[in-house]
Amino acid sequence: MFDPKIYSDRRGRLKELLSDGLVLLLGNNDVPMNYTDNTYHFRQDSSFLYYFGLDFQGLAGIIDIDKGDEILFGNDVEIEDIIWMGPQVSLKENAAKVGCTQTAPYRELFAHISKAISLGRKIHFLPPYRGENKLLLQELLGIHPSKQKEYSSLELVKAVIAMRSVKDAGEVAEIKKACAIGYDMHVTAMKMAMPGTWEQKIAGTLEGIASSQGSASAYPIILSQHGETLHNHSHAEILREGKLMVVDAGAESLMHYASDFTRTAPVGGKFTTQQREIYDIVLAANNHATSLSKAGTTYLSIHLAAAEVIASGLKELGIMKGDVKDAVKNGAHALFFPHGLGHMMGLDVHDMEDLGQIYVGYDDEIRPVDQFGTAYLRLGKKLESGNVITNEPGIYFIPALIDKWKAENINTDFINFEKLQAYRDFGGIRLEDDLLITATGSEILGERVPITPEEIEATVGKK
Length: 463
Prior knowledge:
Creatine Amidinohydrolase; 16 helices; 463 residues; five-stranded mixed β-sheet; Creatine Amidinohydrolase, Chain A, domain 1; alpha+beta
């Protein structure tokens, strides 16, 4: 937990950014796995953590813009709770940890909101994403769950995004802790990438590292020798010599800040000539994107620059043809790079996307591009100093997509479909780092996970 003043300053800043009314921030509650008392791992709402900092269930906060009040609603434990949980800190003591002096029993939240409604006051709330909070909002505000996103406060959404997008020194330190855990996860995966190893054994080992050093994995681990499937969560296969293992995995620090790395390693520890050629192109795109990333530059332009590196490299191998800039302009690169270059990262691995990715990644100046591939770019707007983002170019050979484009004569001026026959079983390669944006450039957060072909070959199978 940060210093109490950090949380009180955040709430004060939020009041300055909003016009009037009151802000309602709901914490999360336990979610049953298969019966009430057997729950999934608890995860607090990220915006509630940002402003009120308390990492347990049964809480809600109100920030009154007009009166200046900041009230934490929750309940003190009873003897039955102590039997199972042990002695607990009081609500007032917990509130003091985050610089909040006003507390009230949870039941009083209903009367407080009801009074505000009766006075015609504006109530700002964020779009809910959990079923139990949707039902609670329906009870508090009388808004059906199907309408709550529509009635949520865009003014609040934009204020929260403006604040959470720029990380302070304490937040960066937490992300670096998550990066250190992620480093261990990926190096361990490389060491285990030997023929005959069950993918699930590696994935389970990585989850154990995340849980033993931090809070948990920041998201479901992607680990597969079928890297052509971008989000492949199946870990069912046995690793085979000559295949590439893609691992997309990150951790959460104990304060729930995320890391998000991807590495691709040859099973057995030696790239084939074909694999090395494609790998070098992806690495060049990754490094080029890092070199371009700085405050004031649009991430859309960096995405397109990385796409040109990919198209140029594939042209040298005879897989693509024609003018590189025209190829990217026509979206031909997306046959091999069908996703965006990266996204915001922080308290969420895809930071704040519960608030609306269109507001997180774009603005009135930079709008999404309606073209296959680039349309999946989650972050396009100008970067700011203090942003933390991912940089994750890739090249994938997806047989179904290749067949579709060939049958429909898509981008035939830029793609040598005959040459692609030799790559149908290739799989995919993705390389991802986490970047802190500065006024003059960017910093790769944490010790860089082995990424050159030589580093990876030296790590695979190492005891």
